Request: fold
Amino acid sequence: MSDATFEFDLATAVRPGARPGTYEADVDGGFTVGPKPNGGYLVALAVRAMGEALEEAGSSHRDALAATTHFASAPDPGPAEVVIEVLRTGRSASQARATIEQGGRRCVDVVATLGTLPEPSPATWSARQPLEVAPLDECVRMVSNPPGAQFPIPIMDRADLRLDPACLGWALGAPEGRAEIQGWIGFADGRPNDPLGLLFFLDALMPATFDIGRSGWVPTLSLTTYLRAAPAPGSLRVRQRAFTVADGRVDEVCELWDSTDRLVGHATQLAAIRFEDESALVPFPG
Reply:
C-alpha cells in the first residue's frame, strides 16, 4: 500500500493556497469525535503544513519536537485554510506558527518547534519506567459506536485502540477512581507509525475521567505535545491519566512507548468537563 492510500495521509494532506503562506486542507469527517474533528488530528494537519512551509524556506525540519495548541473554535469537516508564519529557521531546530481558519473564523492556533527526530535509543536519564500493559491479544478493541455512547466516535475506525481489561471497569459500570486508561494503539489500516502519527495518537484516547464518573463532552482547551524519538516498528503502548478536576476543568497526561521501551511522545492537556452528578464521583483509591 502506498503512502497516498493511507487514510491519515489523505486526511492531513495540504495544498498551496491562493495567498503566500497559506495552504488549503480538507478537514476529514472520519477523524472526528461526534461531529467535531479530533484535536490531535488537527495538530498533525497543522504540523504537516508547517513542514511544507519550512521546506519552501529551505529547511528540512518536518518533525514537531514540541507543539502547543489552543482550540478557540472547533472547525467542521470540510474545506479549511492553514495560515503559516515561519518564525525562525535554524540548524538544529526551526519554529513556526499555524492557524487553521474556516469560514472567517480562527479555529486552532499551533506554535511548534520542528527538527529531525532521532531513531529510538536508550534515554540518557529518565525517572519514568516503561509502561507495562496486558498482551495485545488480551486487550479489548474500541469501536466507533459503543453501547451507551452519546454520539459516534469515527476516529475509533481509524485508530486501532485496544484497552487493557484491568482499566475497563468504567465500561462495565464499575469505575475504580484511578482516572487511568492504558492499552495499545496504531492505525487501523496498517499505516506505519511515524512522528506525524504520534501527534494524533497523543489525543486519541477517551478521557481518563471516565474512570471516576460519567460526563458529557470534554473539549480540549489547550494541548502541549512533546515528541522524543521516531517510533521503532511495532505496536505502541499508550497511557492516559487525569490528575486534578476543579472548577469545571481537568488536566490529563498521555504517554506513548514503542517496542524498544523508549518513551517516544507525551502530552499534557487542559480540558473543560461537566459531570452528570459530581456527588457520585468515585474517589481516588487509597
